Fold:
Amino acid sequence: FKNAGGIMSGIFDPNFNILTMSLTALAETIYLALLATVFAIPFAFVLSFFAARNLMPKTFIGNAVYVIVRTIATIFRSIEALVWAIIFSVWVGIGPFAGMLALMIHSIAALTKLYSEQIENIDTGPVEAIKATGASTLQTWIYAIIPQIISPYLAFTIYRWDINVRMATIVGFVGGGGIGLLLLQQQQLLRWHNVGLLIWLIALVVWIMDMLSAKIRAKLTEM
Structure:
């Protein structure tokens, strides 16, 4: 109870003397999550077409491509971003670059699944109409499928950025940089007043991101 009292008093009496340093680390975390999301989008976008059951031909090669892409995405998604951060921290060194790579790999796998499921739920009418004109597979994708998935894709992407901001804090605990790494350092030094400020800043940013992403996703679903 004595230890818990010290922690709680620190949380509810934050030290604003480290506010500038904390905001710098927080900005690093937000940009880290943004870059991971942005770099993941093109990979996930392309892979989602090969992971959609309704787009892959019912041939041996088509089935093989579908199974391989789905399996890889499932394996990479099942490995937590925290584990990827440990791997990349050893590979490229401790810092935000390792954290960005960890979140990017996990985001590619997660977005590939979300994107492909959206493709599988599209209206088949426009697809059949485009095919009836003699359009190629690529033309069918561009003119019949992509217009139907743009809004949901944007909504999923914004939601993923929201998730990455929260995950970036945890990734920082294993050397991924950002405010998570600063929080770990302050916690190890038992500077609970500094920890309190960092916790409130993280909570504030997550709340703002949650509210903004919810409003943007609601607008996109109405399109």
